[in-house]
Amino acid sequence: MGFQLTASDYAEYIRRAYKKINENGEYVTELDLATGDGDHWSNLNMGFTKLNECSDSLSKMTVSDEMKEIGKIMMSVIGGSSGVLYGSAYLAAAKAIKGHETIDAEGLCSILSAMLDAIIQRGQAKEGFKTMIDSLAPAVKVFKECIENGTDEKELCDKVKKAAEDGAENTKNMEAVRGRATYQADKGIGHLDPGAVTMSYQIEVLMDFVKEKIR
Ligand SMILES: [Mg+2]
After folding, report:
1. How does the average pLDDT of the chain come out, rounded?
2. Cα 32 to averaged position of ligand 1 atoms, centre (Å)
3. CA 118 to ligand 1 center in whole angstroms
């Protein structure tokens, strides 16, 4: 029982994440224009467009090299702070899964956890700052709890996905501590953080995909 993601599986997840991000451009840009400069979606979409184009070659690597390559692509293609943060996250993920042929539940948890640590360190941010961390951190927390408790993997997928979505939703009531929203009188209160929303899209697509792969 359980799942074992291969590099080819992860490449398929990348294609699906690209699709999800690509089709939500208008919505995410609208969110970003309320508090930022409106470039978050176009930057991230550029990165995922490139990853989607490279997905066949990604599928032929070891999972660790695949993470490393994704990190390099994101760092070079995505502009602004998101590129550095996602790049660092995937390079940390490559280290976390080094030596493994496939990604099982523990492996995926260690990947997401390593990504979270890298983003916190590189972004000098933490939970509650109204950033992508506010979606990823609760997802990692729930993932760890599910592994500790031996939760059924399908249930685990649903719980992690929900934690990421709820986390993104919770940014609506947060005051921004970083970025342009801090210059606004309301500090972005009342608006979702676009970075948290796109992070929740990725976790949502990932957990739905993983759920399909459980045998
Ligand atoms: Mg921006």
Report:
1. 96
2. 7
3. 20
Q: What is the count of structural domains for the chain?
A: 1
- Residue 17's domain is classified under what CATH number? 1.25.40.340
C-alpha 105 – ligand 1 centre gap (Å): 33
Q: Using one digit for the tens of pLDDT, what is the confidence trace for 40-51?
A: 999 999 999 999
d(Cα 206, Cα 3) in Å, to the nearest integer?
Answer: 13
DSSP output for 61-94: S-HHHHHHHHHHHHHHHS-HHHHHHHHHHHHHHH
Q: What separation in Å is there between the alpha carbon of 123 and the centre of ligand 1?
A: 14
The tens digit of pLDDT for each residue in 28-40 reads 999 999 988 899 9
C-alpha of residue 58 to centroid of ligand 1, in Å = 28
Residue 178 is predicted with a pLDDT of: 78
Q: Measured at the alpha carbon of residue 131, what is the angle toward residues 70 and 35, in degrees to the nearest 5?
A: 115
Dist. CA 161 → ligand 1 center (Å) = 25
Structural domain boundaries enclosing 136: 7-213
pLDDT of residue 140: 99
